Amino acid sequence: MDVDLAYGQGWLTVGLPDDLDVTVVEPQYHPAVPEEAAYLREVLAAPVAGPRLRDRVRPGQSMAISMCDLTRPQPRHLMIPAILDEVAGIIEPEDVVVLVATGTHRGNTDAEIRQMLGGELTDRLRVVNHDSRDTASLTWLGEYGEGVPVWLNSLWVDADVKVTTGFVEPHFFAGFSGGPKLVAPGLAALETVLTLHDAARIGDERATWGVIDDNPVHRDIRTIAAETGVTFAFDVILNREKKIVRAFAGDLLAMHSAAREAAREIAMAPVDDLFDVVVTTNSGFPLDQNLYQAVKGMSAAYTVVKPGGTIICAAECRDGFPDHGSYKEVLASAASPEALFADISARKETVPDQWQVQIQAKIQSGARVVMHTSYLSDEELALAHLTQTSDIAATVREVCARIGPEARVCVLPEGPLTVPYVDASVRPADHVA
Predict the structure, then answer these.
(1) Pairing relationship of beta strands 2-7 and 10-15 according to DSSP bridges
(2) Considering 13, 198, 263, 421, which has the largest number of Cβ atoms within 10 A of its Cβ?
(3) pLDDT per residue over 364-421, tens digit each?
(4) Three-class SS of residue 245?
(5) Which helix (DSSP H) or strand (DSSP E) does residue 72 occupy?
(6) Residue 55 to residue 63: CA distance in whole angstroms
(7) Distance between CA 37 and CA 191 in Å, rounded?
(8) Distance separating the N- and C-terminal Cα atoms of the chain
(9) Of 209, 240, 266, which residue sits at a domain end?
(10) Is the Cα torsion angle 210, 107, 356, 71 positive or negative in sign?
(11) What are phi and psi of 364, to 5 degrees?
């Protein structure tokens, strides 16, 4: 059977033997709403909770809009104009700043911002990259949640009106993306993010896909956003073509709750048992542009791989590890994934990119991970304790041949766009103990 894997800006076709026991978990097709721009305006006019945005603002006020950076496929070119239309005649464009919620990622280039927003909008608005390491651009707000020191972007803090825009999908340790994440970690200081993503929080079993209740990461993220003030929140859910399926607007927490429930139905899928081999991706570009982001695809596979099983992750990685940040350095700092995981878990202080490394080390301690990339060499991957395959199908056949005819394979063609989970209720009768 042929399976198409999302890879870079296209697809990678993998031919698997017909006699293998293969389960393909991919997004169910959800058609995009007709006339996306008109639909977004309708959603803004009828919020999930609270008054519409135009009824919350006054002439002369300043407004900050938080949006995702290039690593997220948010339809900013539609969402930002919809917000501007909603406040037209009340707040002037020159009183608006659009903040790229980079978290600890690098700032986006002018060309990338134009790619995200379009040239006309980029030229008309003030667009600023958040910089978590620039202390002069941050404001101290106090301690929130379970001992989280909070500095936020000063342009955000000083704005009269604060609007988050994003998209909601299951997140590999925060439960779900969108909503409050557009404040912290999106617009937070490095120290704030390091605390939110420390070893204890990330290592908690409740810090995983689709879990919100008692998730220590999401709990503090939600507390920071709610208690430091968000005027209005606006999120979308996307289909496999990155088109809008649903949108939600209104008070932050109520809006995000409604969006999460819709995303759970759309983006999570039950399977009957664990698998010997899981082939995964990171949903193609822009999500698979570096190894750092590809950990999400590995994590989605890890939810359904047998202990000691094999994960094969196809991610183009055109941006390398990437080279900025300390991710590569931390990965190479120990002799094995097991040693790396133990070292991170024992640390009292969190270092940049530690959370991603901690999750990757945990995955690699429990399963063999094989990469298929176009921009990372075997030698570079070895620094991350990873191996590479040039032929995914051949690697699947090799692993299954060692296991025997009972080998089971799962394929996630679009990686974390649909997150699998084991649910005994979907098992066939002869599978039930």
Answers:
(1) antiparallel
(2) 263
(3) 999 999 999 999 999 999 999 999 999 999 999 999 999 999 999 999 999 988 899 8
(4) strand
(5) none
(6) 14
(7) 38
(8) 30
(9) 266
(10) positive
(11) -70, -20
31, part of any domain = no
Q: Is 267 exposed, middle or buried (0-12, 13-18, 19+ CB in 10 A)?
A: buried
Residues 258 and 391 in one domain: no
Return the closest-CA partner of residue 176 out of 296, 355, 294, 1.
296
Q: Helix, strand or coil for residue 310?
A: strand
Distance in angstroms (rounded) separating the CA atoms of residues 325 and 373: 20
- Domain shared by 340 and 404, yes or no: yes
Residue that has been written with the tokens 């094995």 in this structure: 336
Sign of CA dihedral 55, 56, 59, 62: negative
* Sign of the dihedral defined by the CA atoms of residues 86, 91, 92, 96, in that order: negative
**DSSP annotation string for 383-425:** HTT-EE-S-HHHHHHHHHHHH-TT-EEEE-TTGGGSEEEE-GG
For position 142, which CATH number holds?
Answer: 3.40.50.11440
φ/ψ region of 20 (left if φ > 0, alpha if ψ in -120 to 50, else beta) reads beta
Looking at residue 199, its pLDDT comes to 84
SS3 of 426, please? Answer: helix
Sequence-separated (6 or more) residues with CB below 8 Å from residue 136:
none
Which helix (H) or strand (E) segment holds residue 353: the answer is none
* Amino acid sitting at position 84: L
Phi-psi region of 347 (alpha: psi -120 to 50; beta: other; left: phi over 0): beta
Task: Dump pLDDT digits (tens) for 145-167.
Answer: 999 999 999 999 999 999 999 99
